[in-house]
Amino acid sequence: MFAPPAIAALNHLLTQNGWASRRLARFSGKTAYFHVEPFSFACTIDDHGLLREAAVDANADARCTTPPSLLPRLALLDDTAFAQIESSGDAELIAEIFFLARNLRWDAAEDLSRVTGDIAAERIVQLVRANHQRVRDGALNLSQALAEYWTEESPVLAKPQQLSSFTQEVNTLRDEVEQLELRIDALSSPLPSSARGNGE
Length: 200
Prior knowledge:
Oligomer: single chain
Number of strands: 5
Order of helices and strands: HHEEEEHHEHHHHHHH
Distance between the termini: 35 Å
Radius of gyration: 18 Å
CATH architecture of the largest domain: 2-Layer Sandwich
Shape: globular
CATH class of the largest domain: Alpha Beta
Structural class: alpha+beta
Largest sheet: 5 strands, mixed
């Protein structure tokens, strides 16, 4: 149930960032497996650099396992968070996945304009970008809420050792969040020309 919407969202980003699908097309036919407790899905890359749900019996060429506590930091493009993702398999494909994760940009204004019109969409996006503090606080609050849920409401989702590690990571996130504020700018910054050139 999780795979179709996740793959649809990723394909939307790849379509908005044409350079990315061109890069990914080099790995046509390969399958990547992603696991973020308690969800997982596998997708296969097609000839156009887009994704489709992998066949049930498909062997994963690359695997990435991400602790839920890393999600807010990954959203803020924290390089130390990427280093904590457990990965195995095709090293070149994994490197490409990480590169795209750092550089894909969602064109929110384009999507909003279909509902609100161009001018209103641009104003909404500018307002969101101006509220860095709220974005930062929201990421922190999300991680704390997840920690409380998994440790108190639903401890069966993880082993005690995992829960302890998760809680420690959330505490670390609280200390690091001040250093991550500048990384929010990267979410709305255009891809460096050097990176675009690699995809041409």
